[in-house]
Amino acid sequence: MSARYQVDGATAVEISASIEAGIREAALAPGDPLPSVRALAAELAVSPATVASAYAELRRRGLVVTAGRHGTRVRSRPPVAARRAALRPPSAPGLRDLSRGGPDRRLLPPLRRHLAALADAFGDPVGYPDLGVLPDMVEAASARLAADGVPVAGLTLTGGALDGIERLLGAHLRHGDAVAVEDPGWAELLDLLAALGLRPIGVPIDDEGPIVAGVAAALAAGARALIVTSRAQNPTGAAVSADRAEALRALLAERADLLLIEDDHAAELARVPLHPLAGAATHWAFLRSVSKPFGPDLRLAALAGDETTLARVAGRARVGAGWVSTVLQRLVLSLWRDPETTALVTRAAESYERRRGGLVAALADRGVPAHGRTGINVWVPVEDETSTLTALRDAGWAVAPGMLYRIAGPPGLRITVSDLREEEIPALAEAVARAARPTPAPGFTA
Question: Do 265 and 232 meet the contact criterion of CB atoms below 8 Å apart?
Fold first, then answer.
């Protein structure tokens, strides 16, 4: 815990409020450890049960996480607004930062021309009756999904993939329900589950997607939802293969008690075919967002699903946010219809494939196994995350620790290639190989 911040309070409510204030004021940063229950109880002259109750409330609200011998820490993305500086991982001058996980901004389509055209064509204000999902958007998004084999009986829009997942879970599940998720998996999703009071069950994955036996075990343990990344899985780059999709569809066939959510966030950037699970379970949803190919500021995702699921999501939106901006919808339509933008996205996908594949191959040449079938990330299994991360930082490289993405899976590191230059690949691979297999210290000599 930060030496600058002292927790206070005499009751569980006061203690949890004090810790929340520390997070909000950035005196407690993401990842900071909290004192043990007994240590804080002694410091505040309260019973350990009082501190334990405060920590339990903070866990329930997704502000902290408890990880065995690692103790209790502030979550990587606690659901409370803090000063923005506190959300940035520490860096250092001259450090090559490959930890961010975002797309290469040099390969995102420019928006100026499209925005100018929209201003000329749709510059007049519109009223409430004209707002909602545009028919042209439904037609275009449905055609793009159907071309990849996704059944589209109906479609709605959400403010990106994570917003869609939150709406889906809120429409189907209750506090305390279990959700089967990939392990390792998307860190933001794990934080969302914590904020919603849902319990994640980790499902091991390989390069072909979630392992069938792991999914079966999660369902047997009571999972009421299953979330699968179709392609470019974060952090491993896994993509659901045809054989894996067939096996999972057989396992999930007509499960009326399960919500199946598929996230195809990479979409046009993925260089492997889509093998959807859509329709395998009674209640299902397929999400395709536009942020990775077209820009993180374009918060829009197309959501297809069964009739009941779509009705629930659209109904909740109607009494909440209402709709996705029609200006944003028209901008995305303009990008989809533009041949130059399509060509740029294709070049981006090819560039990511060269860099990702080049890094995986360079690591393999040095005896380091790595995973990165699709997407912008490479996952490197290691024996010890802390020592490997430290050695890489000493060599001038910053990558993401696997603990952000793991529930019970083995340790690893995530390397994002979107800011990696091709000529840097040999040096990075050599640094990873040295960090993952450090030279033993010399023994004593006579």
Answer: yes
- The one-letter amino acid at 203: V
**Are the C-beta atoms of residues 198 and 169 closer than 8 Å to each other?**
yes
Those residues whose C-beta lies under 8 Å from the C-beta of residue 254, and which sit 6 or more positions away, are 281, 282
| Pairwise CA distance, residues 12 & 255, whole Å | 41
The helix/strand/coil state of 349 is: helix
| 260 burial via Cβ count (<10 Å: 0-12, 13-18, 19+) | buried
Percentage of the chain surpassing pLDDT 70? 93
Q: What is the pLDDT of residue 78?
A: 82
Rounded Cα gap, residues 155 and 204, in angstroms: 31
**What gap in Å lies between CA 232 and CA 260, rounded to an integer?**
18
The H-or-E segment that residue 179 falls in is strand 178-183
Residue 114 near residue 334, CB atoms below 8 Å: yes
H or E, element range at 357: helix 339-365
214-217 long-range contacts, CB within 8 A, separation 24+? 215/180, 215/248, 215/251, 215/252, 216/251
In the sheet where 209-210 sits, what is the strand order? 155-158, 301-305, 283-289, 259-263, 223-229, 178-183, 199-206, 209-210
Judge whether residue 60 has pLDDT over 60: yes
In this predicted structure, what is the pLDDT of residue 71?
86
Distance of alpha carbon 69 from alpha carbon 192, whole angstroms: 24
The alpha carbon of 11 is separated from its chain's Cα centroid by a whole number of angstroms, namely 35
What six digits make up the tokens of 331?
């901008």
- Cα angle 158, 102, 208 (rounded to 5 degrees) comes to 80
List, as own/partner pairs, every contact residues 366-370 make where C-beta atoms lie below 8 angstroms and the sequence separation is at least 24, other chains included. Answer: 366/429, 366/430, 366/432, 366/433, 367/433, 367/437, 368/429, 368/432, 368/433, 368/436, 368/437
Assess contact for 252 and 281: CB atoms under 8 A.
yes
User: What ranges make up the beta strands (E) of 40-152?
Assistant: 64-66, 72-74, 96-97
d(CA 438, CA 94): 23
Give the Cα separation of 13 and 195 in Å (integer): 18
